[in-house]
Write a structure and sequence with these properties.
6-stranded mixed beta sheet
């Protein structure tokens, strides 16, 4: 497989391979048997990874396989009256949904026709480590004109998605839903729809994500992509006054502008399950359905005790399932860019009549939105009560001398991995010492938010608000090397990434 890097971000991940002593080529670090030496890290090709995969196959494996082919290529797509040059899977935006059932095996061939290396990360899936799609940590990158087949058991149902983990690629059009159905599910709704929310800049007036990052790095923290007026557009935002670094010209739902929205068709009285995915790189969305209440049923794929709300805050990388009982008429589905100016928009139609104007006021957006931290896991989703065996503090910071974001004072290039051992209960305390919110995402695991009562939601991505902290607990039951990072792509690429490292 081609190993030529095409940018310093990939190079920095290569440097991490040398620093951490793990990678896709060697199973573990060569640490020797001396008791005074560092513990041996469990690499992505360690026998322990294969053992964990066989255990998944035996516990939940169905014997069925779903195959898919993803061709990553340069494309021209129509956003609904605006054509842009970007990168997509198979010339579609979002890419073609992959749908399978819990316990199935996914075999997805990725063909790289891009001008640079790529990979695919299966966001939200507790999969085998060497299939996780992080170049330099779990696999070699997929080189130009090369291909790679991802092959793993999918153990948990839920609303998930997939995207690259190379540079700024997922702020282009390289993303798509991954829906894992629960065979025991379906009684609580009549039909469903998947809604992918996104902030869009690629190909507009010569802008690209790479140029946006370069501009931020050259201007430093003294100048963000947002004007002060935009940052203060919504004083009621729970995210604080600084809600993003990039000024996006467009916000999309399922690849469409609000001037040419997609339409969901339903019958009056039907219960529609909306699977909501925030694929944005720098934007949280306040989501609502005009003239309707929503019942939140799942967060990041896991069931929660149902909560009714008017609006819902969805951070980057988060997914929520909601159920809406459809009224008679034509209604706006709105994803308002939180603390920014602009929105994504779709329509819900159950009767005749004209669609509401795109500028119509949606009262459901006016009040404080429900957030993931307001939810409680169902009994079936909660972890058992157990004292943590290992605790790690993560201080989320920034370097005021430039556009640099850190965890425990270090960028990804020089970070110290968070070491855990197989079978441990692990406690992670994330302390945000910055004025911006950070959606923190852990690969290969789900955690339970520690609400002090053992009832917090099960998630893999959690919002840590400015000058606040969030504590989560998880079971170390999936050996390997796992990325833990801010899902604001610009923060992550500017350093706010670390790893959770299994050791023997």
């Amino acid at each position: 497989m081609q190993r030529t890097s095409h940018g310093r971000r990939v190079l920095s991940r290569r440097r991490f391979m040398a620093l951490a002593g793990v990678g896709a080529v060697s199973a573990t670090a060569a640490c020797g048997a001396d008791a005074g030496r560092s513990p041996v890290r469990v690499g992505p090709e360690s026998p322990a990874v294969a053992v964990a995969e066989r255990a998944r196959e035996q516990a939940v494996g169905s014997g069925r396989a779903t195959t898919a082919t993803l061709t990553a290529r340069q494309s021209t797509v129509d956003l609904g009256g605006v054509r842009v040059s970007t990168w997509t899977y198979g010339d579609k935006l979002p890419g073609q949904e992959i749908r399978l059932r819990r316990g199935d095996t996914l075999r997805a061939e990725v063909i790289n026709e891009l001008p640079q290396d790529t990979s695919v990360h299966w966001h939200g899936i507790a999969l085998r480590n060497d299939m996780d799609g992080v170049p330099g940590l779990t696999q070699d990158p997929i080189g130009t004109r090369d291909a790679f087949t991802y092959d793993f058991v999918v153990p948990d149902a839920g609303t998930h998605w997939f995207h690259p983990h190379v540079g700024m690629q997922f702020d282009r059009g390289l993303y798509a839903p991954l829906i894992v159905e629960d065979p025991e599910d379906g009684d609580g709704y009549d039909l469903e729809a998947v809604l992918v929310l996104d902030d869009w800049v690629d190909g507009v007036d010569g802008r690209t994500p790479e140029r946006e990052l370069a501009a931020l790095e050259s201007s430093g923290m003294s100048m963000t992509g947002m004007s002060m007026g935009e940052m203060q557009a919504d004083p009621a935002t729970p995210l604080g006054p600084d809600t993003g670094d990039v000024r996006y010209p467009y916000y999309l739902i399922n690849g469409r502008l609000d001037t040419d929205p997609m339409t969901l068709q339903a019958a009056v009285g039907q219960r529609i399950r909306l699977r909501i995915i925030n694929a944005g790189a720098d934007t949280a969305f306040r989501f609502a359905v005009g003239d309707h209440r929503m019942t939140v049923t799942h967060s990041d794929g896991y069931p929660v005790e149902p909560v009714e709300c008017a609006s819902l805050l969805v951070g980057m990388g988060e997914r929520y399932d909601v159920v809406v009982t459809v009224a008679d008429g034509v209604f706006p589905i709105v994803a308002s860019a939180e603390g920014k100016q602009g929105q994504g928009r779709a329509l819900l139609r159950s009767g005749t009549g004209e669609a509401p104007e795109r500028t119509v006021t949606v009262p459901e957006l006016a009040g404080a939105p429900l957030t993931g931290l307001d939810l409680r896991a169902t009994d079936s989703a909660r972890l058992d009560e157990r004292r943590p065996d290992r605790s790690h503090d993560m201080f989320l910071g920034m370097d005021m001398s430039g556009y640099t974001w850190t965890i425990n004072g270090q960028t990804y290039d020089t970070h110290a991995p968070l070491e855990v051992r197989q079978g441990q209960r692990v406690r992670l305390r994330m302390v945000n010492q910055t004025a911006m919110f950070h959606p923190m995402h852990l690969h290969g695991h789900t955690f339970q938010v520690d609400d002090g009562r053992g009832t917090g939601p099960r998630k893999d991505t959690v919002l840590v608000l400015p000058n606040r902290s969030v504590t989560v607990v998880l079971d170390a039951d999936n050996p390997g090397q796992w990325l833990l990072h801010c899902h604001n792509l610009y923060h992550g690429e500017a350093g706010m990434m670390t790893s959770m490292s299994y050791v023997d």
